[in-house]
């Protein structure tokens, strides 16, 4: 899941979170919740970056850093 918060207004790249989830909706909720807490964002200022949101891990040559939250208890 790739989530962009208010940092996008300062030209910063979005955050990509790799989470374990049963479906895409659950994955979106987990990533948004983690992003909101860890980056101190307000929920209304978040956008899911759809082109970089998909099932599976980003490729080794994806061109961006990502955060592995699969071991985190996010529920």
Decide which structural class fits the backbone: alpha+beta
Number of domains: 1
Give the distance, in angstroms, between the N- and C-terminal Cα atoms: 16 Å
- Major sheet: arrangement of strands: 3-1-2-4
Q: List how many beta strands DSSP finds.
A: 4
Mean pLDDT figure? 83
Task: Please report which band the strand proportion falls in: under 5%, 5-15%, 15-25%, 25-35%, 35-45% or over 45%.
Answer: 5-15%
Specify the number of helices. 1
Fraction of residues in helices? 10-25%
Low-pLDDT runs of 5+ residues are none
Question: Helix and strand succession?
Answer: EEHEE
Structure, explained:
The protein is of the alpha+beta class and 75 residues long. The chain has one domain. Helices cover 20% and strands 15% of the residues. Strands 3-1-2-4 form a 4-stranded mixed beta sheet, covered by helices on one side. The protein is globular and about 30 Å long. The chain starts with a strand and ends in a 7-residue tail after the last strand.
Tell me the layout of helices and strands.
Layout lengths: L1 E3 L10 E4 L5 H15 L8 E2 L18 E2 L7
Parallel strand pairs: 2-4
Antiparallel strand pairs: 1-2, 1-3
């Amino acid at each position: 899941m790739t989530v962009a918060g208010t940092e996008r207004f300062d030209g910063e790249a979005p955050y990509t979170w790799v989470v374990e989830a049963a479906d895409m909706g659950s994955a979106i909720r987990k990533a948004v919740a983690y992003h909101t807490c860890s980056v101190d964002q307000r929920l209304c200022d978040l956008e899911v970056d759809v082109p970089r949101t998909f099932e599976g891990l980003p490729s080794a040559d994806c061109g961006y850093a990502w955060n592995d939250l699969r071991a985190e208890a996010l529920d």
